[in-house]
Specification:
Order of helices and strands: HHHHHEEEEEEEE
Number of strands: 8
Distance between the termini: 84 Å
Largest sheet: 5 strands, antiparallel
């Protein structure tokens, strides 16, 4: 006869979730010095990765909203992660054992939720505002491969007008200046000087922004420069 008492019951999905959540909480609340530094270092690495990656992707696709919040999340967690695991969590654990006032014990009981909620609020606000200090300005040539195209872009951002021209340009048919998806000026002859008023420039992540596109005779982009005023 088969001993049915030894047959293992199938693992239910909800039990797996509960175990995973308990494991996550145990790691989050681990308060030994080595664990504090490991968690802080891991979050700094994650934050730096998301911040840099978000900046690079945002430079190519500035209209994708989710990239703003990925960028903001990485930027905030670089400082918030170590602050949470080196200061907030040890303080909460200590106060849970020593606090005598009811109001303090009530706040400490929900301390982790308050900390995480504040963190998400800061991420959302920074993602909406996208301040310049958070955005890396990739002003080198971005876009398609330049191939045989060589050129040095020189721009003068005056008080009312932006003026740009190319030096040592080869393999270019014409040049346009674009802002907000609209072509503001075009030049078909060297030194391919183009200009636009500041009022016509659209707002970028770190100021007024425009693009200089080097094109061939078919209108295909050979190289693109992004500049911020």
């Amino acid at each position: 006869m088969t001993d049915t008492s030894r047959l293992s019951l199938p693992i239910r999905p909800d039990s797996i979730v509960r175990r995973g959540w308990r494991t996550l909480l145990s790691v989050y609340c681990s308060n030994t010095p080595i664990w504090r530094w490991l968690k802080s270092g891991a979050l700094v690495f994650l934050g730096f990765f998301l911040w840099m990656g978000g900046n690079v992707l945002h430079a190519y696709w500035p209209d994708v909203a989710i990239l703003r919040y990925i960028l903001a999340y990485g930027f905030v967690v670089i400082a918030w992660g170590p602050f949470t695991h080196l200061v907030v969590v040890p303080s909460i654990i200590r106060l849970r054992r020593t606090a005598s006032r009811p109001i303090v014990r009530r706040v400490v009981k929900h301390g982790s939720k308050i900390n995480f909620g504040t963190f998400l609020l800061v991420v959302v606000i920074l993602g909406m505002l996208l301040p310049g200090v958070m955005v890396l300005d990739f002003t080198t040539g971005l876009g398609t491969d330049g191939g045989d195209v060589t050129a040095d872009l020189v721009c003068d951002t005056g008080s009312e007008t932006v003026n740009c021209e190319l030096e040592n340009a080869e393999g270019v048919d014409h040049v346009v200046i674009i802002s907000g998806g609209e072509v503001l000026d075009r030049s078909d002859e060297p030194p391919y000087a183009v200009s636009a008023s500041r009022e016509s420039l659209s707002e970028g992540p770190s100021g007024l922004q425009f693009e200089i596109e080097l094109r061939d005779e078919n209108g295909e982009t050979l190289r693109r420069f992004i500049r911020t005023v």
